Amino acid sequence: MCPHRSCFGQWGQRHAWARAWRSSQCGHAALRQEMYAFPTYGALPGFGHAVLTPASAASASSYEYPGFGYGASKKAKREEPAASSKKSKTKVAKEKATAPARDSDAMNWPKGLVVSGGKDKMVKKIVRGSFRFAGENHGRPYYQKDEKFNDLDVLLYFWDDRDGSDFSGWWFGPKVGGDQVWAYQPGEDPTPPETGWKVPYDGPVDKSFTVTAKKEKAKKEGKEAKAVKGGKEGPEKPAEEPLQAYSMWYGMPGMPGMPYMDPHAAERHMQEYARLHQEEAKRRLELEFQRQKAEEQKRKEAERKRKEEIRKKQEEVRKKKEEEMKRQKELQEQRIKEGKAVFMVRKVIQKVAAATPENLEALEKELEECLKEHLEDTGSQKDHMKSESDKCLDQAKKRIEMLNEAKRKAQEKKEADEKKRQEMEQRAKELLMELSQLLDTAETGVERLKEVCAPLEQGDTQSQEEVDQCATAVEAAGTETRELVKNCMDFLVKNGPEMKDPPSAAVVGTSEIKQLMAKCLSRINECTKLSDALVAASRAVQLAVARRATASQETSKLKDLFNKYDVDGDQMLSKQEVLAFAKAEFQLTLSVEVLDKLWPRIVEDQKGVLFERLHVLKCKLGMQRELLRDQRRKERREARDKVRAVLREQLDTKVQRVERDVEAVEEAVVKVEKSLPPLEEEARKSMDVPARTAGCKAVLQDARDVAGAVQQKIDDLPSGFEERHLEDVKDLLIPDLRVLSKRMARFDLRLRRIENLCRRFDSEVLQRQRSELYGARLFAVKVARLYAAQRSRNMQQLYSEMDASGDGVIDAQEFSLFFMSMERGILDEASAKEVLPEPPVPSLPSKPKAPRKSVLEPVQFTDELLSRLFKSLLAPGSNKLSEEAFAQIMRCYFKVVKEGPITSELQVTGTNSLRQAKPDEAQTSESSFGGVISLMGSSMSDSVSSRL
User: Fold this and answer.
1) What span is annotated as the signal peptide, if there is one (predicted)?
2) Which pairs from 609-617 meet CB under 8 Å and 24+ separation?
3) Which one of 47, 209, 672, 852 is at 20 to 30 Å from 128 when CA atoms are compared?
4) Would you say 609 and 578 are in contact if contact means Cβ atoms under 8 Å apart?
C-alpha cells in the first residue's frame, strides 16, 4: 500500500497533483491507482478486451509468463515452485491442497462459544459473553473471551489429571492453570460441555449456566456455494493468494485457450489506454479544483463576516467591562475612605473604653475632636459610629465611678484588717509569754531528774537494792517531768491557732512571733528528749545489774554441782569423778577407752578437770551421747530394712495377681467399646441402634462389675499383715497403688464415655422418632386436606368419612384404613416438593449457600407408622380420636411473606381494609382446603378474624 494514499485529505486538492508526481517512491502502478482513482491492470476483472481470471497458487500465465508488470503478484512469484513443467506444477498444487490444516477445523473444534445463564451475580458478570478459539492445552482447545473484565483475560480451558483427579476438568479463569478460577466442570469431554457447571467452582451445579458453540450457518452456506462454483469453474484457490494478470487477448473468440503471440503490441495498447484515462482524470481533477477554490472563497468571506461580528461584540463587552470597573473603583475608593474614618473613630473609642480616672477627661476631649474631624467621612456608618461613641463614653464613666467606689471599700477593709491584725499579734505575744513560763517549769523538772539519776553513774559499786531504789526515784521524777512537758503541749494545741503570726503584707523576713514560737517548740523538744534519755539510761543500768545478779546465781549453782562430784576436794575432777558425773547428769555410761581419748582435749595438761573447763566437759559428754544415739538408730534401721524386704516380696506377689485382674478389666472395656454403635451418623442409619445400644449397656454393666471387683482387691492389698508392719506396708504400696489407680481411672473414664455415648444414641433415636412422627403428622394432614379439596369436603364431612363405623369417633383401625387406601394421585401430589420463596438479598459476592430444604418431606405410610402416629395424636387417657381433637390437628397455619391488606370482605376496594398484614405474621384457618387465593382466618397476634 502506498504510504502517501491519504495525501488528498492532508494537503488539499490544490497540491494533490504536484505531490502525486513527486511521490516517485510509490511506483508507476501505485501512482495511477492512488492519484487517478483507477486500478492497475490485473487488479480488476478487465479493461477493453482483457479478461482477468484468478491465478493458480502453483502456476503463472501460459508459457510460464508471469504477466505484463501491471498486476502481477510478487507473492505468487516467491511461492511458485522451481519446476517449470506442467506436471511438476500440478503435483505441487496437489500437495498443498492435501496438506493437513493446523487450526480448529482439523479437530472439528468449534471456533467460537457463547456462555449464557447463571445464578451467581458476580461470576455471570465475569464469564458471560462470546469466546473465540485461542489455542490448544492438554489435548483440548481453549478459548478466550472477546472482552476483558477489569483488565483480566477470561479463558475457558481444560486441565488433565496430572495434578490429581480433583483438578481434572474444564475451568473458567484469567490464566491457563492459574490459581484463580470462577467455574468448574469435572467432565473430560473433547470440547467444553454445555451443562453441569459448578458456579462458583466450589458451589452446587448451576443448571441455568450453559456453554454453547457459535452457529456457523452463514459460513457453511458460503463454503457450499464455493464448493458448487469450484465444481463448475475449478478448485477453490487460497484466499490469501492475489490475482494473476493474463494477456489482453487471452481467450478471444476464434482462438480458444491460445494467448496472443505479440506481447509488445498488447503492452502498447495498454499504455495508450492508460494515457487516455490519465488525461480524462486530469481534466476531472482540474474541474474539481476550480469548484473547491470557489467554495473556499465563499467560506473565507463567511468566516470574515463572522469574525467581524465577533469583534464588534467583543468591543461592546470590553466597553461595558471598563465602565463597570470604573464604577467599582469609585465604590472601592469610597469604601476605603469610610474605612479609614471608621478606623480613626474606633481607635479613639477603644482608648476611651480603657480609660482610667486620671485620663478620662483628656480622652473625652480627644473623642469630641475626632468626631468633628472624621464623623462626616464615615458615610453610611455615621449614625452607628455616633451611637457607639456615646455608648462607650457612658460606659467608661460608669466604670470609673465603680472603680472609685471599689477603691474606697478596699481602703476601709484594709484599715479594718490592720486593726484586727494588731489585736491578734498582741494576743499571740501574751500566749507565747504564758507558754514560756510553762516551759521554765518543765526545764526545772528536767534538772531535778538529772540530780535523781546521778547515783546510777557509779555502776558496779552499787548493790541490786540500791539500784532498784534509785531507778524507782528516776521513774517518779521522769513521770513528773513528762507531765510538765505534756502541759506545755496541751497549751500549744489549745491555743495554737491564736499563737500564729497574723497575715501582714508589710513584714519582710521572719516576724517576731514566728521566732518566739520556734524557740518554744525547740525547748519543748529538748525537754522531751532529755527526760526520755535519762529514764532510758536508768532502766538500762537496772537491767544490767539484774543480769549480773542472775549470772552470779547460775555460777554459784554450777560451783555447787562441781563441788558435789569433787569428792577429794582438790578443786579438780578426776577420771572416776568424771565417769560418775556423766552417768548421773547425762545418763551416759562411758568406757575407760573412750574417756582416755577425750581426756587430753578436756584437761589441757592438767591432772583433772578444773571448774573453768566444766563447760568443755559438758560439751564433750553431750557429743558422745549423740554418737551413741546414732549407733542405736542405725541398728534399728537395719533391722527394719530386713523386715521391709520380706514385706516387699509378699506385696509383689499380691500386686502381680491384681495386675492380671486389671488386664481382665481392660479386655472387658475393649469388648464394651467394640459393642458400641459407630460414631459416624451415616453408618448408624443402616443398623438397629436401639438393639445395639441395649447390648452395649449389658456388656457395659458386666465391665462395671469386673472393675468394681478389681478395685476392691486393690483396696485390700494392705490387709493380711501384722499391725506393727501396717505403716511399712502402706509406704511400700504407694508406687504400686499410684500406677494401679491411674489405670483404673482411665478405665473409668472410658466406661463413662461409653455411657455418655449410649445416652446420646438413645436421645438421637428418640429425637429421630419424634421427628419422624412430626413429619408423618404434617404429611398426613396435607394428604387429608388434598383429599378434602378434591372431594369438596368440609371438616365435618371429612371426619364423618374417616369414621367408617359411624360411632362418632375414629379408632386406630379406621385411621390406618383411611390413609392406607389413599389414591396414588393424591399421594404423588402431596409428595411434590414445596419450598418457601427466598427473601431478596443485596447483590454482594458471598459464599455459596446450600440448597434450600423442602418445607415438607414425603412419607411412606405403613401400618406400624400409622399406629404410632395415631397414638401420638390421642389425648392422655383416650384410645380414640374425637372430632374436637381432629379439628385441632387439621387447623392450618399460614405465614405472611409479603405485606398486604386485611379485609372483612372478599373484594378489596381500598376503603374496607382493617389493617396491613405484616411479614412473618401468622394466620390460622380451619376450613380452607386446596389452593389459597383468599384466606378467611384469624391473626395469631391480635385474633382479628378477617380475609387476607
Assistant:
1) none
2) 609/572, 609/573, 609/578, 610/571, 610/572, 611/558, 611/559, 611/562, 611/571, 614/558, 614/562, 617/573, 617/578, 617/581
3) 852
4) yes
Q: What secondary structure does DSSP assign to 120-139, as a single string? A: -HHHHHHH-EEEEEEEEETT
Q: Write out the three cell numbers for 875.
A: 389425648
Whole-number Å distance between alpha carbons of 465 and 469 = 6
Q: Assess whether the previous peptide bond of 200 is cis (omega < 30° from 0).
A: yes
746: cell is: 482411665
The reported pTM is 0.33
Helices (H) and strands (E) in the chain, counts: 23, 13
* Number of neighbours of residue 470 by Cβ within 10 angstroms: 20
CA distance 791 to 451: 135
Grid cell for residue 194: 454445555
| CA–CA dist 706, 672 (Å, integer) | 12
Q: Going by C-beta distance under 8 Å and a sequence separation of 6 or more, which residues neighbour residue 281?
A: 35, 36, 37, 38
Q: What is the pLDDT of residues 536-573, one digit of tens each?
A: 877 777 777 777 777 777 888 888 888 888 888 888 88
Per-residue pLDDT tens for 462-474? 667 777 777 777 8
Taking the C-alpha atoms of 929, 930, 932 and 936 in order, what is their torsion angle to the nearest 10 degrees? -10
The residues facing 911 across adjacent strands are: none
Angle 456-458-461 from CA coordinates, rounded to 5°: 110
H/E element, 305: helix 263-353
Are 131 and 140 in contact, with CB atoms under 8 Å apart?
Answer: no
650 CB-side CA count, 13 A: 16
By DSSP bridging, strand 913-917 and strand 900-903 are antiparallel
What residue type is 633 in one-letter code? R
Question: Residue 931 in contact with residue 901, Cβ under 8 Å?
Answer: no
Question: Which helix (H) or strand (E) is 924 found in, with range?
Answer: strand 922-925
3-class secondary structure for 352-404? Answer: HHCCCCCCHHHHHHHHHHHHHHHCHHHHHHHHHHHHHHHHHHHHHHHHHHHHH
Distances (CA, A) of 259 to 273, 535, 693: 20, 161, 107
Bridge-based pairing state of the strands 922-925 and 892-895: antiparallel
What pLDDT shows up at residue 99? 41
Say if residues 187 and 171 touch (Cβ distance below 8 Å): no
Amino acid 60: pLDDT:
34
For residues 105 and 9, what is the distance between their CA atoms, to the nearest angstrom? 43
Gap between the Cα atoms of 231 and 913, Å rounded: 81
CA-CA distance, 162 to 581, in Å (whole number)?
Answer: 105
DSSP at 249 = T
